[in-house]
Design a protein that fits this description.
36% of the residues lie in helices and 30% in strands. It has two domains: 140 residues, Gcn5-related N-acetyltransferase (GNAT) (Aminopeptidase, 3-Layer(aba) Sandwich), CATH 3.40.630; 154 residues, 3-Layer(aba) Sandwich (Aminopeptidase). The model has no long low-confidence stretch (mean pLDDT 94). The chain contains nine helices and 13 strands. Strands 1, 2, 3, 4, 5, 6, 7, 8, 9, 10, 11, 12 and 13 form a 13-stranded mixed beta sheet that branches. Helix 1 packs across helix 2 and helix 5 crosses helix 7. It has 317 residues and is α+β, with helices and mostly antiparallel strands.
Amino acid sequence: MVQIVSRRLNSEDYKILAKITKSARKDTPVESEKTLEEIQQNIEKLCTDEKFRKMIAFNEAENIVGWIYYYVGFPLMAFISGFQPILDKTDEADEIALALIEAAKKDIVQHGFSRLEIELVFPTKAHRTYSERFVDLYRKCGFKFAAEEVHMKTDLTILELPKIDLPQGYVLRKFSEVSYDQLEGPGFQSLKDSMEGLFLSMSHAEQKVTLDYFFDKSTNYIEDASLILEREGEVIGFIITRLREDEPEIGPIGLVPEARGQGLASYLLVRVLENLKNIGSTSVYLDTTITNLPAQKLYRKYGFEDVYYKQFYYWSP
């Protein structure tokens, strides 16, 4: 019989979790080159961070046999990153994994969250194959497919950009000059009418939380690469760029439906790429749903190439 608990851990617990993690990932695409001590330090850091919650599985002998953790990212939403649960090698592995996932589901409900989302990243085909068992486990626990995205990159040092003039009647402003109230309506319009599956899989309340994050001026957005397009005083387009691990990443980018088909998305993207080059950036990244072919066509036009893919699954009570 497996018991799942969420409690404060001690140094011996961290050591056991490190051994389980290193053993579970040995000879897999996610095998770590880190030493056991380094893995233990990372686990201790994670487990003492208030943004993370962990569930630990114990067997009948009260030995730790597996664990799972999730990240509290936003109000309403919690996230599992990577290939979890992480389990000791045992004949009851699937049973323990399902119990840990169910425990995480129960825990988010108790803490008032409406969505638990898992992200699986595929740098290689081997990662995608390795994910199949995890996807099967999550589906058994009621998780639904949300979207698959491609993470793309362009090399600004070799990119030749065309000169595109802003059509008459439009005004370009900086993100810092526009209020959230001005952005919220067009944000909903553009993203709900898009083919961005992850946003579309959310409830209205979760979409509102996501927009709050997208248009949050307290985060490290890049002033010269975060632009708003207006017509007659109304926001009709936007492109926000932020630093992620010291690299610029574009997102979100959107146009209200009636503004599409006029080359405005190209104009916004080119202006941002120009500005990033001017401030010394050498590359920039973005994500888009793989089914959003018009967006991919636009990005590839400006040198963006696939880096890796990622899939998202979610559960809501």
